Amino acid sequence: MNAPTNAIVFDHVSKHYGDVLAVDDLSLAIEPGSTVALLGPNGAGKSTSINLLLGLLAPTKGTIEVHGHSPAEAVKAGEMGAMLQNGALIPELTVKELIDLVRRLYPRPLALDELLKLADLTDLAGRRANKLSGGQTQRVRFALAIAGAPRILLLDEPTAAMDVESRLRFWASMHDYAAGGRTVLFATHYLEEADEHSDRVIVVARGRLAADGTAAQIKADAGGHAVSFALGDQPAAGLDLLPGVTVVEILDGTATLHTSDVDATLAGLYRSTTLDVHRLKVSGADLEAAFLQLTRES
Ligand SMILES: Nc1ncnc2c1ncn2[C@@H]1O[C@H](COP(=O)(O)OP(=O)(O)OP(=O)(O)O)[C@@H](O)[C@H]1O
Question: 99-126: string of b/e by CB count within 10 Å (b at 16+)?
Fold first, then answer.
């Protein structure tokens, strides 16, 4: 039998919680060595997908493979490490003791010094776990996730509640770990994180696949541009009906029209409205506009 070419495969996977359809016929394949963002709004099914991948939940329909094995087999073989949204540390232990305790549970763990270095914890090695800030705690949880040197690392909204500096340090650690050819899948609803830290973005909305590609492809496919202008106190009624317009945002007297056809929108703005248009600006799509459009459409 040929070795499986994909690290992760979801084949028509659905997951119901009673009446709630959290994951809806999701099919995708992730190549080894890629860093993939699972991007979606609240309730899109990101955590459910990660829990399915870890074998913590069973799909209602469909199958999941991890390097050709079931999730349970892959977890048992130490193929996957995960940083989930919750999970307390043992407060009495120091950072070093805790990481060493966990790494010893694995057959081929990373060296303690390497783990401390990768998670940027060398200076905090002697600190007790209950004396850490939120961002430092997340770094310890990251170290625990990679302790067994997993080939696949799953991160569920890893930077939630981190400040800007902590985020930067966290992503640097993630890239260092991924650089060894490992596969990383991280869930986020931060568009910038998906854009900056992944080489592929899988957008999910209401449990379904809404888009899949590089951040640049998703922006291009959504075809979006934004037309903005100073609206002042003029009425915004009807802007959403202009040709091409997908989303209208009004903020501090500025109207921003996200559009799939910038020429048609501009023509409509000048011909079909009586608005005084000042400080007109046309910009290329950003991931946010693409994301809004995609998660509305699906
Ligand atoms: N244990 C559960 N029982 C019932 N419904 C659940 C359960 N867990 C999740 N859900 C529902 O399943 C859907 C998907 O939830 P999930 O937590 O996977 O989304 P998410 O994309 O991770 O959201 P968030 O970004 O808010 O963490 C939501 O409608 C949620 O309310």
Answer: bbebbeeeeebbebeebbebbbbeebee
Question: What is the 42 CA–ligand 1 centroid distance (Å)?
Answer: 8
Q: Whose alpha carbon is nearest atom 2 of ligand 1?
A: 17
**Percent of the chain topping pLDDT 70:** 94
- pTM exceeds cut of 0.90: no
For residue range 17-39, list pLDDT tens digits in order. Answer: 999 999 999 999 999 999 999 99
> In this structure, how many other beta carbons lie within 10 angstroms of the beta carbon of residue 250?
12
- The percent helix, strand, coil of the chain (3-state, each to 5) is 35, 30, 35
- CB-defined site of ligand 1, < 6 Å: 17, 20, 22, 40, 42-48, 189
Q: Please give the ipTM for the structure prediction.
A: 0.97
CB 264 within 8 A of CB 215: no
Q: Please tell me the distance between residue 40's alpha carbon and the centre of ligand 1 in angstroms.
A: 12
Q: Which residue has the tokens 């650089």?
A: 179
Residue 141 has pLDDT above 80, yes or no: yes
Q: What are the helix (H) ranges across 15-70?
A: 46-53
pLDDT digits (tens, 9 = 90+) for 206-227: 899 988 998 878 776 666 788 9
The 3-state DSSP class for residue 154 equals strand
